[in-house]
Amino acid sequence: MLCGMAEKKSDRTRASILAAARERFGADGYERATIRAIAADASIDPAMVMRYYGSKEKLFAAAAEFDVRLPDLRDVPREQAGEVLVRHLVERWEEDDTLRVLLRTAVTNEAAAERMRQVFIGQLTPAFERAAMDEPAVRAGLIATQALGFALCRYILAFEPIVGLSTDDAVAWLGPTITRYLTSPVPSVP
Amino acid sequence: MLCGMAEKKSDRTRASILAAARERFGADGYERATIRAIAADASIDPAMVMRYYGSKEKLFAAAAEFDVRLPDLRDVPREQAGEVLVRHLVERWEEDDTLRVLLRTAVTNEAAAERMRQVFIGQLTPAFERAAMDEPAVRAGLIATQALGFALCRYILAFEPIVGLSTDDAVAWLGPTITRYLTSPVPSVP
DNA sequence: GAGGAAAGTCAACAAGTGTTGGCATATGCT
DNA sequence: AGCATATGCCAACACTTGTTGACTTTCCTC
């Protein structure tokens, strides 16, 4: 078999290591997710993990690679922007566990926290800037508080009333909040 | 010195251990906060920590002892309830680092997560029940998402736009959200 | 002051961590 | 075939962790 092909053997194990890493990091956090456990999940020797990714930190960096893939908010009217954004975020959260990895680890790992800042401030702020909003950074931050708080309570802390919400329920509750953070004039504090 | 007095020597070191533990747990999370580091902060031998608290888990349990001390919401009109609650929570957060300890650790430590559930669902829900609200658990959960998300972004992840908010700013922005979660009729999802 | 408990120190253990180098195996090319 | 390279496993390392037991010092009571 001539190996210009994409399907090399090593690529498969590389990928299975990454999958196992994501699961473990997401379930246990950075410190408690051990290389040995990840290797066991991938049915492989711990040394292989080092061979392929160099170190635990680099493996984590690979596992936490992420892009929010924001929808273009200029297409939707301001009053629906909140609901569109919430639905996008919740669905994104549900389909991809990378965000859960990031959330679990960002609390104790500075590199993960930095990436979180990049994603939620660094990607949201310019998007709002393009939509010609005032105070785009503050609005991005506020939306991050509600979105991350929801994810924290739903996926990490498992608050029953929040876990029990359907996607539609969540959108119906959170949508207006996000809309207000997007559209409300900056409150003047006396 | 007759030792019926309250000021025994051991009580002081006990307290200094607890203070150091709170700081370390709050700054580093459960796993990275080592007994040795806590002991060093308290200028004491690691063995003393075990002598006084038995184990790391018990020390953590002592350090995470906490009560929200909710204000009585029956006194305030519904329209201001959100602002009152937010102001109370933010101030509580600012004055006492126990909540930060809890937040940092709850993400990886199941015992801390359980306590978080007790505090935010177990204490908030019955308070709303007493105030004769419908769906008290869901409302408690939603308020928890916004409150915890705010704390996460402000104290743990250090999102600059959120760190920069004054207490009054925070109340002005979050107050209406909490009020809506308290008062809005349950959205009907088709 | 003598006796005894309380408070603190020291060194060590057993277990688990990330990480490394050497050695076997298999795989693909000529 | 035979060689070279990629892939994988094993055993060990250096280190840190929570935890323990024996020893010394300090302090209070008699």
UniProtKB/TrEMBL annotation, chains A, B:
Residue intervals of the HTH tetR-type domain: 11-71
Lineage top rank: taxon: Bacteria
GO MF annotations, alphabetized: DNA-binding transcription factor activity; transcription cis-regulatory region binding
DNA-binding region range list: 34-53
Protein keywords: DNA-binding
Keyword rRNA-binding: no
Annotated PANTHER family: HTH-TYPE TRANSCRIPTIONAL REGULATOR RUTR, TRANSCRIPTIONAL REGULATORY PROTEIN
Protein name per the record: TetR family transcriptional regulator
Lineage: Bacteria, Bacillati, Actinomycetota, Actinomycetes, Propionibacteriales
